[in-house]
Design goal:
Shape of chain A: globular
Number of helices of chain B: 12
Largest sheet of chain A: none
Largest interface: A-B, 73 and 75 residues
Order of helices and strands of chain A: HHHHHHHHHHHHHHHHHHHHHH
Number of strands of chain A: 0
Oligomer: heterodimer
Distance between the termini of chain B: 66 Å
Structural class of chain A: mainly alpha
Helix content of chain B: 40-55%
Structural class of chain B: alpha/beta
Number of helices of chain A: 22
Radius of gyration of chain A: 23 Å
Helix content of chain A: over 70%
Largest sheet of chain B: 10 strands, mixed
Chain lengths: 495, 344
């Protein structure tokens, strides 16, 4: 009983840690509640207008990303070789891993054709977010629909029947959830609506920045950010996945859901993007002396960046293991399913205030964990954990303890998800400059070097740093893969 | 298990090296006086004037200069405000004339008695006792030399050849965008100015969130012209040896952007901060700022005989204005409202 109470307390502490930026935000708002009411009245017409724009833009982006993701998923299942599949996934994720400015420049011929406005913004979002959406769909189909393939094939079920009668009903909830993730990401998008959009694409995030930067009004920025968070929170509650909705199934690529046309479309889109990206790299290398100077400066930051990456991976690994151990606490699952963070600029600001006594390195690690860990838990850990619930029930009936469930069921089967979670989290962290530039005081990470190059005349050289960041991301993936596998092997020996 | 041990040794070693690096910093910190300067990353970066100025200053001050970087003035001001008791800036660099009006109302600044032989363009800007100008540039549109059309006035930006080919900055997020808006309103008056902006919308490729995004579109040949500084072509000619860019001259005159430094009331090494500002206004300091920031020096006799002297003198539309924050809000509200109605 005591152990159970202790575990519940640990779960609550776990949730509270991620709520800290909100605590700061609400504390700030309650300091001057009368002024807040007045400000809210003043701001209301603007908020309403920006809110409408955000909704239209994010909903359209989510729909397009899901359509593209469906096409990419069909392309994925056409590939049989494991090596080619890995290459495909890398290509799939690339648009979401490089700074959005490079996407904009790379795909500008398409945006020029579409013109400035909603259409261009939606296409840019669709291209960036479809990779992740596609990975989610691939996982859902593998987990939920694979078992039906053989029976349907023998029974003569057509492709359209398989899609409409089996795939869509089975993964409906996952599709809604994936769409919601894209919706939320597009809702807080900043640069793309500004560069590619018209005034009608001015959303709440732009409004927050405007209040903060032009009017220097942190109070207004906090009010809008709070309203944005509340809205997204309510939305998340409606799309929460069922706790025991899954059954474990062996993954096999469904032969029904593959298309060579989809594969050609995927390669065409990414060829266009990659060739323009390579063109920018060539431009960056055109002035060799500048390129060498920039790469020299970048080398100074590699050590610090890797220290951030290692420390982050290490602590995130520990937190993830605690989370995986505590998962059966329904409160934790619900919390992370609905948890939405306020604006990342405000996370940076609240972190430097709340952890002001700590070193900048520590503050950065805390801020990045607060910002990124909930996302990877949602995207990678939750689906797999939900899959395991059937096995766990059987084990409980057989008398297994919590520790045994963790050690013999969850940890071995979540090893790959842990590797993916940590790799993606570390990659996002080393390429982040929203929180990093607020927390750090010097150009210590590669992303900040890239940012300073992007804000000078040396935009073309900054592309070279993005290549170094991509390389480090890959290196980190290999190290994390190696490290987690080593821990896995060590724990297996003891078993 | 062997791999497991190697992995953790790797993590532990990197953390230890980081710890050593930090300890070294702390030890050297305690040994001497420190001048803390809050500034933009472009100023403090390797390719900005910061490192060279630091070297010059440390050679004579028996102190250490510590740059604390921030991406822009708004985040910088918010940081100064939110850090409260931990507030420890001795000098803040990087305000432009629009920021000055805001900064004055948000924080307390020391009145300084720093006089210099200022060029005529910034003499009015130098009248404020708390904010000291250290560089400036004139704003204009930059084109490639092979652009076949002539642009001599703001109205020429409406030529059909420039349809969808002009990169501007969003005035809500970029000070250059705000400068352009103010330029048009000052040159044409409010009613005619907004009517001009309405016509210009078809010509504009995009309103980027920052100068760098807009300039990136231009250097990648995605637009024909971009709002930037008259000194921009010099960067391409001096660093990239590319003389294919030119700055346009407008009949209406040009806006001017001045950068300022200021010492907050809570400074700890106030004397060092003042000396650093004096260094920035010396011949040597101004040369460093000019060559690294690609901005004009604010004192006489620095650019003479250099490539900066080859840039013709542009007529400035108005002297530096320290407009009230309410005026900026009003201008932006009208711009937003106007664009909202225009696109309905």
């Amino acid at each position: 009983m005591k152990v159970n109470r202790a575990l519940t307390s640990l779960g609550l502490i776990f949730c509270l840690f991620f709520l800290i930026p909100y605590v700061y935000q609400f504390y700030f708002l309650t300091l001057n509640s009368e002024a807040i009411t007045y400000s809210l009245k003043q701001l209301w017409p603007e908020i309403k207008w920006a809110f409408k724009n955000s909704i239209i833009q994010s909903a359209s982006s989510a729909i397009l990303a899901l359509i593209l993701a469906f096409i990419y998923t069909m392309a994925f299942f056409k590939i049989e070789s494991k090596v080619k599949q890995r290459f495909f996934v890398l290509l799939l994720l690339l648009p979401s891993l490089v700074p959005s400015l490079f996407i904009i420049i790379s795909l500008m011929p398409i945006f020029d054709f579409l013109g400035r406005g909603l259409m261009s913004v939606v296409v840019a979002h669709g291209f960036i977010f479809s990779g992740f959406a596609s990975l989610q769909i691939i996982n859902s189909i593998n987990n939920k629909c694979s078992d039906f393939v053989g029976h349907c094939y023998i029974g003569g079920v057509s492709r359209s029947q398989f899609i409409y009668k089996i795939i869509i009903p089975l993964i409906k909830r996952d599709l809604i959830y994936t769409g919601l993730i894209v919706f939320i990401s597009a809702f807080s998008s900043f640069s793309i609506p500004l560069v590619l959009g018209s005034i009608q694409t001015t959303g709440l995030e732009v409004l927050i920045f405007e209040k903060f930067k032009v009017e220097f009004n942190l109070q207004f920025a906090f009010i809008i950010s709070t309203l944005q968070s509340i809205f997204l929170l309510i939305l998340s509650v409606f799309t929460i996945r069922k706790f025991q909705d899954y059954k474990f199934k062996k993954s096999t690529g469904p032969i029904y859901f593959s298309s060579s046309i989809a594969l050609k479309f995927f390669y065409l889109m990414h060829f266009l993007f990659l060739s323009m990206y390579l063109y920018q790299i060539v431009l960056g290398l055109r002035f060799l002396n500048l390129a060498i100077e920039v790469l020299n400066v970048a080398l100074d930051s590699v050590f610090y960046t890797m220290s951030v990456a290692f420390t982050l991976a290490f602590f995130s690994f520990l937190i993830l293991q605690i989370y995986i151990f505590l998962f059966e606490k329904k409160i934790l699952f619900t919390f992370f399913e609905v948890f939405i963070l306020p604006s990342s600029t405000l996370i940076g600001l609240s972190s430097i205030v709340l952890y002001s006594g700590s070193s900048k390195f520590t503050v950065l690690i805390i801020a990045l964990i607060t910002l990124l860990l909930p996302w990877v838990i949602k995207i990678f850990i939750h689906p797999k954990l939900l899959n395991l619930s059937f096995q766990e029930q059987v084990s409980y009936i057989g008398g297994a303890s919590k520790w045994q469930i963790y050690r013999y069921i969850r940890w071995p089967q979540l090893k790959n998800e842990t590797i993916w979670s940590l790799s993606v989290l570390v990659f996002w962290a080393i390429s982040d400059f929203t929180v990093t530039r607020i927390v750090l005081e010097k150009q210590e990470t590669l992303s900040l070097v890239m940012y300073s190059l992007m804000s000078s005349y040396r935009l073309n050289q900054s592309v070279l740093i993005s290549v170094v960041v991509l390389f480090l991301g890959l290196l980190n993936y290999l190290i994390i893969n190696w490290g987690v596998n080593a821990i896995y092997k060590a724990s297996k020996k003891k078993i | 298990m062997k791999n497991f041990i190697i992995f953790f040794i790797l993590v532990a070693t990197s953390s230890y090296l980081l710890f050593l690096k930090r300890t070294e910093t702390v030890t050297s910190q305690s040994a001497e006086r420190v001048l803390k300067i809050y500034t933009s990353s472009s100023f403090a970066s390797q390719w900005g004037p910061g490192p060279e100025l630091k070297q010059l200053f440390e050679a004579s001050c028996q102190c250490r200069v510590d740059y604390i970087e921030s991406s822009d003035s708004a985040i910088l001001i918010q940081r100064l405000k939110t850090e409260g008791d931990n507030f420890s800036a001795d000098l803040v660099l990087g305000f432009d004339q629009f920021d000055v009006s805001r900064a004055k109302t948000q924080l307390g600044w020391k009145a300084l008695d720093i006089r210099s032989n200022y060029v005529s363009e910034v003499q009015q800007a130098a009248e404020l006792a708390q904010f000291i100008p250290y560089d400036y540039s004139v704003l204009t549109f930059i084109v490639r030399k092979d652009l076949p059309i002539e642009i001599l006035s703001l109205d020429d930006l409406l030529k059909p050849e420039l349809k969808g080919a002009i990169a501007l900055q969003d005035p809500r997020t970029s000070s250059l965008g705000l400068q352009f808006l103010n330029w048009v309103i000052t040159a044409k008056g409010e009613a005619e100015g907004f009517s001009f902006i309405q016509k210009l919308m078809d010509q504009v490729h995009s309103h980027s969130p920052s100068w760098s995004s807009a300039y990136g579109l231009f250097t990648n040949k995605l637009v024909k012209t971009v709002l930037s500084y008259v000194t921009s072509p010099l960067y391409h000619s001096m660093i990239e040896k590319d003389k294919n860019y030119r700055a346009l001259e407008f009949n209406e005159g040009h806006p001017i952007q001045v950068e300022f430094g200021a010492i907050p009331n809570q400074c700890q090494s106030c004397d060092l901060a003042e000396s650093f500002l004096q260094l920035m206004l010396s011949m040597d300091g101004q040369k460093v700022i000019m060559n690294k920031n690609f901005m004009f020096p604010v004192i006489k006799g620095v650019k003479e005989g250099t490539e900066f002297d080859t840039i013709p003198r542009y007529v400035v539309s108005t002297q530096v204005q320290f407009v009230e924050p309410q005026y900026i809000d009003q201008l932006l509200n009208k711009w937003t409202e106007f664009r909202r109605n225009e696109s309905k």
